[in-house]
């Protein structure tokens, strides 16, 4: 089946080019008198209906841009949203929050239904500074510039020009010479754009630091914890870093010795850390990938396959690599349509197969939430919850990887690889989180210091067992390939926290598959106004990243891998 990239997948029920009309709608909301709790509840519904129309249109325009960063008209529409609509939105959102919070009926709203909304609005009122609006717009412009640079990145491979994701996929190759060649090609691609990406990051750090100062904080790290309404502290994060270093890294090093032996290498080099023991990529055509994933989802639960097939038939999947497409992969919700859209820019590889399954976890979560509660509002979305269902979906499908790896030894290797990925998702995001703590607590750092710190942290965590001699500079610069540092600051640790929950889900699945899947669906459709811990509990797991849990789940993971003989 050929993908139709021109198919319209979102609804534009509002004209974002009509700025005066949009302002009039905001002003109308501000002018509505609120004289009772029921008036306030009706006002909140009216506000929500306007906001989701705006969000769907802006989301659609953003995805259009990621799908084709080189189309001038698409880019113009996207930049209009960022440069004109986003400042307007920030301005009126602040006024609407203030109107809501100052209402004498605000504190009379039902705690169970509106408690989270109240806390988020109060923090937004506390954080808002009008002088930050142009800074936020500039921040988004720089993020867009990063996407354009990376979207246009190509690499010469055997005389052909290939999209960057193709080179990344070659790092999986069982042939060590191919992996090493791909590693050097990747670094060679980074070198000419590194000064420009350094300049972008330098400016982003300064902008974000100034945003924090304007809001009354000493640094951006402390600001972002309030802005994200985190249900844990900075110290909790540092404790988590230490718990993983103490209990997960030694297990990671032991597993590295196992993989080193299986690869038959004397020294474990940077390009060996990514090697896959399966003989071939899991697919060659996107249609084959979609056929297989649909089957795997259906064997787990019919509803999962139903959603995937629906998305496939309705142009809600854009998979595969092509020039001009932004890097990475994501799933996003369309709140008016009640749909989810999955974007991915990957070449055939084990990682791309798992990434699609991962994003389908998000998609199923989105559909269940919509069917149970209607469109999720911005304040309800917490990454610690969302990532539980994406990681969870990966592990629920672990026993079905033979769909792509029918050879028994390849199947076991693929399962080991997915479990090794679970280890990396405990380790890597914490490394990235610590890196960002350092960046924003030391905002005057230089590009050279940043690279050195990235190497130092990488060596402590994911590259701990790797012989990095002679590649300190290359590893130090490789952070530029991670989109999160540019576009989603401090969105890292959530992956690690949720992986601990997902491993508990796998443990439950091994004991009772049907019950684990039902718990997954129950949690994925739970009321998002609850605490993170309460939603985890509905999923049959605990939101716990204390030392005993980290140690126990690390031991469980290592045992499961070792049992795959």
From TrEMBL:
Q: Mind telling me which InterPro entries this protein's record contains?
A: Pept_M3A_M3B, Pept_M3A_M3B_dom, Pept_M3B_oligopep-rel
Q: Where is the Peptidase M3A/M3B catalytic domain?
A: 172-528
Question: Which prosthetic group or cofactor does it need?
Answer: Zn(2+)
- The reply on keyword Phosphoprotein is no
Q: Which UniProt keywords apply?
A: Hydrolase, Metal-binding, Metalloprotease, Protease, Zinc
Identify the domain of life: Bacteria
Q: How is the cofactor bound?
A: Binds 1 zinc ion.
List the NCBIfam families hit by this protein, alphabetically: M3_not_pepF (TIGR02289)
The record's similarity note reads:
Belongs to the peptidase M3 family.
Q: What is this protein called?
A: M3 family oligoendopeptidase
Name its species: Anoxybacillus andreesenii
């Amino acid at each position: 089946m050929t993908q139709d990239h021109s198919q319209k997948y979102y609804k534009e029920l509002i004209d974002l080019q009509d700025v005066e009309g949009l302002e009039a709608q905001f002003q109308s909301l501000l002018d509505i008198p609120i004289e009772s709790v029921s008036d306030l509840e009706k006002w909140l519904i009216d506000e929500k209906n306007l906001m989701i129309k705006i969000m769907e249109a802006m989301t659609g325009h953003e995805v259009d841009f990621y799908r084709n960063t080189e189309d001038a008209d698409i880019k113009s529409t996207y930049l209009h949203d960022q440069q004109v609509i986003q400042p307007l939105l920030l301005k009126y959102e602040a006024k609407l929050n203030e109107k809501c919070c100052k209402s004498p009926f605000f504190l009379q709203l039902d705690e169970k239904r509106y408690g989270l909304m109240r806390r988020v609005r109060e923090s937004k009122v506390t954080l808002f500074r009008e002088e930050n609006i142009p800074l936020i717009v500039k921040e988004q412009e720089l993020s867009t510039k990063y996407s354009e640079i990376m979207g246009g990145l190509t690499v010469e491979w055997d005389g052909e020009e290939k999209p960057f994701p193709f080179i990344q996929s070659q790092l999986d190759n069982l042939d060590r010479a191919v992996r090493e060649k791909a590693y050097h090609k990747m670094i060679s691609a980074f070198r000419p754009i590194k000064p420009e990406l350094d300049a972008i990051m330098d400016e982003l750090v300064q902008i974000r630091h100034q945003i924090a100062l304007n809001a009354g904080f000493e640094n951006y790290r402390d600001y972002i914890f309030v802005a994200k309404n985190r249900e844990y502290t900075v110290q909790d994060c540092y404790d988590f870093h230490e718990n993983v270093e103490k209990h997960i890294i030694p297990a990671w090093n032991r597993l590295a010795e196992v993989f080193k032996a299986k690869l038959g290498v004397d020294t474990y080099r940077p390009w060996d850390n990514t090697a896959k023991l399966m003989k071939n990529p899991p697919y060659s055509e996107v249609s084959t990938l979609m056929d297989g994933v649909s089957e795997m989802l259906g064997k787990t639960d019919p509803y999962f396959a139903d959603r995937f097939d629906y998305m496939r038939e309705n142009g809600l999947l854009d998979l595969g690599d092509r020039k001009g497409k932004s890097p990475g992969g994501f799933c996003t919700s369309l709140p008016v349509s009640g749909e989810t859209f999955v974007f991915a820019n990957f070449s055939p590889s084990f990682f791309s197969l798992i990434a699609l399954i991962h994003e389908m976890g998000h998609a199923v979560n989105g559909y269940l939430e919509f069917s149970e509660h209607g469109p999720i509002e911005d304040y309800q979305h917490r990454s610690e919850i969302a990532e539980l269902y994406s990681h969870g979906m990966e592990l629920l499908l672990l026993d079905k990887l033979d769909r792509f790896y029918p050879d028994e030894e390849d199947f076991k290797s693929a399962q080991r690889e997915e479990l090794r990925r679970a280890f990396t998702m405990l380790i890597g995001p914490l490394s990235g989180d610590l890196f960002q703590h350092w960046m924003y607590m030391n905002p005057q750092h230089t590009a050279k210091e940043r690279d050195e710190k990235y190497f130092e942290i990488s060596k402590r965590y994911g590259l701990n067992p790797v012989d990095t001699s002679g590649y300190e500079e290359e590893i130090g610069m490789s952070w530029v390939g991670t989109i999160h540092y540019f576009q989603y600051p401090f969105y890292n640790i959530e992956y690690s926290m949720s992986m601990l929950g997902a491993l508990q889900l796998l443990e439950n699945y091994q004991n009772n598959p049907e019950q684990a899947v039902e718990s997954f669906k129950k949690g994925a459709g739970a009321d998002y106004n609850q605490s993170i811990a309460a939603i985890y509990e509905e999923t049959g797991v605990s939101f716990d990243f204390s030392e005993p849990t980290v140690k126990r789940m690390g031991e469980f993971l290592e045992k499961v891998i070792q049992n795959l003989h």
